[in-house]
Design goal:
Elements lengths: L2 H10 L8 H39 L2 E9 L1 H12 L4 E11 L1 E4 L2 E3 L2 E5 L1 H4 L9 E4 L8 E5 H7 L6 E5 L1 H8 L7 E9 L4 H5 L1 E5 H8 L5 E8 L5 H11 L4 E5 H4 L1 H39 L1 H9 L4 H32 L1 H11 L3 H8 L10 H18 L1 H9 L2 H6 L2
Parallel strand pairs: 5-10, 7-9
Antiparallel strand pairs: 1-11, 1-12, 2-5, 2-11, 3-4, 3-8, 6-9, 7-10, 8-9
Length: 411
Amino acid sequence: MFWPIYLALKQLFPSGRRLPFFTLISVMGVGLGVALMLVSTSVMGGFGHQIRQMIIDTQGEIQIRSSAPIGAPVAAAVAAALAKSPEVTASAPYAAGVVMIEYQGRPAFPSVQGFDYERMKQVIPLDRYITAGSLADLDDDSVILSSILANMLGVTVGDNVSLYTPLMMERMKNNEVLLPRTARVAGIFHIGHQQLDSSTVLCSLRLMQDLYGLGRTVHGYSVRLEPGADPDAVAARINASLPSGTRALTWFEANADFQAVIAFERNMIFFLLTFIIVVAAFSITSSLLVTVVRKTREIGLLGAMGGKARHVAACFCAQGMLIGLGGTVAGMALGFGLLHYRNAIVQLIAGATMGRDVFEKFYQFSNLPAYTETKDVIIIIVFSVLASTLAGLIPAWRAARLKPVEALRSE
């Protein structure tokens, strides 16, 4: 074994003695920083992964949109473009807009999406989100409301609501009167996303076409891909065959602003938590500087015996690296342990503070999601070990500058 490494081990873990206090504190500092970084990035990754799955489950991996309503000629071109992509398993047309919905004098202004149920169920698994009623009961005279919207209006399955659309204003310009459309509530769904659950109405494609006067045209297509297919590559191939004014967007491109905010928050949290490792590195530097002062004569003896300055410096850098490795292993074990029991910890905190029911009402979740990416684990490991190793540079430089004669003369 290279003697600076052996000496570093002997100084950190002297034989026949308990773990030195300074070593223990340094390892714990790195370990706590690593655990906190791992838990934070995993939880933020869990929210991002959950939202990604939610978007795909409600929109599909790819959406085909057009600057104008899609009629029969463009629809034929879209069908041909989709047929050229073997990764496409299903597609379904949709029409979307905004309506005013009213029930017993209580109005709301949700977004509305009309779709062909028989085709859409092959693309989007909406059935799993239905909490009352059934999608099978949806017809041209009924709608399905999101949960928070239904609670706000006081609507239950079987009630009748009135729908007002922008088409009514257009008809009034021509001195025509268009009465509101009455629709029965066929079901209620809950996705788990605040915005979608508070302002979304689902209806049949024909009802949406009637509400907006679209005739037989649609606004776009939702597309489902084979598992493991690359949405970006498939979208690029589809775009090569689409007519001008029509474009295929991946789920990420269609929600780019929202995804950018999530990525920014995640990166900012990761950046801020790196300072915990930096603080731990300063504690390593402090403890190793104390070691240099305490072992001045031993360092001088190494130089007198022929030890080179770079070898003495390597001894202290190795101590920082070993502390980093030990702290990283401990931090990873603690972090994955906390992630495993995260829901029990959340429930314990909720029960001890505001109560579980109130916690779920305001924070909209009872189970804390977590998703750990391999690259995040690698980055945390490399950063913590590197920071700990660099923390030994100042003590190593100080030890390397000691002259053997002066060091041996030191009291």
